[in-house]
Design brief:
By secondary structure, the protein is of the alpha+beta class. The chain has a single domain, classed as Alpha-Beta Plaits (2-Layer Sandwich), CATH 3.30.70.100. It has three helices and four strands. Strand 2 and strand 3 form a beta hairpin. Pfam families: ABM.
Length: 99
């Protein structure tokens, strides 16, 4: 399984528009991207305009297909004017374990 942690920052005065864009991206991803196991955003309660997206994918091929999908490119373009700084994206390969 591939897990993605994407830390994202909107300019505080555009946090509402950024949040709406993230919501649209989430809906499109969950509806259209095979191999997506989870795709969720959370907003910081201490840092205005800070978000994290946690994604889970079956494999690298599914993640790459998502990154290449038109709805991802459209969201990226739509969100760009509202960004405060570049995203910090970390990608992990993970395996479930028993405790």
């Amino acid at each position: 399984m591939i897990t993605v942690h994407a830390h994202l920052w909107a300019r505080p005065e555009h946090a509402d528009a950024y949040r709406d864009g993230l919501r649209a991206l989430q809906e499109a991803t969950l509806a259209r991207d095979p191999g997506c196991l989870a795709y969720a955003f959370w907003e910081s309660i201490t840092e205005p305009g800070a978000f994290i997206c946690v994604e889970q994918w079956t494999d690298r091929t599914a993640l790459q297909a998502h990154l290449d999908a038109p709805h991802h490119a459209e969201a990226d373009t739509a969100l760009d004017p509202y960004r405060a700084r570049p995203a910090d994206v970390r990608i992990f390969e993970s395996h479930p374990i028993d405790l």
